[in-house]
Amino acid sequence: MVNVLRRLNKLTAVIPQLVRLRNGPGAAMLPQDVTRIHMEFAHRINQGHMGPRVFFREALPRLKYWNPAVPMVVNRSYDQSGPATLTLYFREPGATLPSDLPQPSSSTQGLAKAPAPAEGERALTIDMKNRRSEAILKEFMEKSGAVSVKMSPEDEAIMREVEERERIGAIDRERIRKLNEAAKREKQMIAQAHSEAAAIKAAL
Predict the structure, then answer these.
(1) pLDDT per residue over 11-24, tens digit each?
(2) Cβ distance 143 to 28 under 8 Å?
(3) pLDDT value at residue 8
(4) Residues paired with 129 in a beta bridge
(5) How many helices (H) and strands (E) in the chain?
(6) Which domains, ranges and CATH numbers included, belong to the chain?
């Protein structure tokens, strides 16, 4: 029974994560002519790489969730002065691309540069440097033709429940914090009283 409850608790914790993954900025369906996506930016946020990093952490996982068949390669480097680009690849009208189109693996060492478009493919690059993630996503949606996915009534109900739990949890944490502070003050007062009593006794 204990193991069953533990599994239920784990499942309860995972469900909100899945709801957040499939809803929010980046939750969108790409048109069929989008063949792949490539991102390039630096590890640190300075010199204009903060917006790209936020897009990578928030929007890209949702895009991948809704478009699992679209390859998405991320190239991160330690060159802060380097580019921050988002490249979209499109299938040309009437073109047939090979199913085994070579794809570089994502890299944290700057080794996965954006490949040249294949025959029957075109590329469009968005400059992400010194831009907020919201602006990057807006241009991405416009130029890719992606369609936002609306949150389902079931997910809305789950998120309302999660928000209510978080609200109650915050109230409980504040109550416990105040109780702990009161207990700490009481302990300090008792220790001080004992110390003063010992000092008086020693002076007699």
Answers:
(1) 456 678 888 899 99
(2) no
(3) 42
(4) none
(5) 5, 6
(6) 24-96+105-150 (3.40.30.10)
> What are the start-end ranges of the H helices in the chain?
2-21, 50-54, 60-66, 133-144, 153-203
Global confidence as pTM: 0.76
Residue 39 and residue 52: Cα distance in Å, rounded? Answer: 9
Q: CA-to-CA distance for 35 and 51, rounded, in angstroms?
A: 24
Q: What is the DSSP letter of 147?
A: E
Amino acid, res. 49: H
| Tokens describing residue 75 | 């190239």
Phi, psi of 100 (to 5 degrees): -100, 35
Q: Using one digit for the tens of pLDDT, what is the confidence trace for 110-140?
A: 999 999 999 999 999 999 999 999 999 999 9
At residue 148, what is the residue type?
S
